[in-house]
Structures are given as structure tokens and as C-alpha cells.
Amino acid sequence: MPSTQQIVLLQTKQEELESICRLEQGEARGFIIPYSLERHLLEFARPDVIYKSIEVEGQAVGFVILVLDSDGRSVEFRRIVVSTPGRGYGRRAVELVNDICRRELGRSRVWLDVFESNHRARHVYEQCGYRQFGRSEHEGRTLLLYERMA
What we know:
By secondary structure, this protein is of the alpha+beta class. It has helices at residues 17-24, 37-45, 89-104, 119-127, and strands at 7-11, 49-56, 59-68, 74-82, 109-115, 131-138, 141-149.
């Protein structure tokens, strides 16, 4: 059942990266390409990479990673992980990402890739207005490319 609790996306603090690594090793592991702590630290330090923590009533329930494309108009929605799928946190966070990209980052297009086998995520993205525009491969697995105009 979807939550009616308020969900916010806040700037992630560096000390949260260890928790993010643990979250990636949980249920989400089969649907993402997890990073080591060292990789997260490197990405976190990049000026074009934005980490946002998903919080519900002051409790961290997940995170997103956004990457500013060099074209000046697009944002790669690189990752979203929530601790407890099925509560609507992910869907609401996806909606908030679109607002952040448009209002905070001044970008007009958001794109992402998702494993073809990740039916739950594909359903959420499609319900939030994302449309497939291409395909790719990663280690023998099909990735679908989606985009949405912010």
C-alpha cells in the first residue's frame, strides 16, 4: 500500500556512503551495478555527480544518484535504491527527481537505463512519464534506455 508520508530528497552527507553501500548489497543488488565504498567516494567528490538521500519523517529510506551530462540540458538518473520496496517511496522519489532536475539543476531532460528484467522499476518509470528510446547491453544483460522531458 503506497505511503501518504512526506518524502523528501536531501543532499547526501559523505558519512552516509557506507550505509548506501549496505543498501546496494541488499534486495536491490540484482537490479543495479553496485559500487564499492571507494567508487562511491570518488563519484561523490565529482562536481557533476549529485547524491540525494530519500527521507521519510527524518529517516533515510534510500538514495538517488544524478549525473549532469555535458550537453547542458540532460541529467542521467543513474541510480535509485529504496530500503523497503512496495511502499511508494521509489515512485514519489522518481517524481521528485524530475522537479529537482528542472528547478534546481535547470535541465530539461532526464534519462536512465534499467535492466529489462526489472519489471517493477520499468512500471514505475513508465507511470512517471518515462518513455523507452533505446537499448544497450551490460555483461550479457539487456538494458532499456528511458527518457523524460523535465
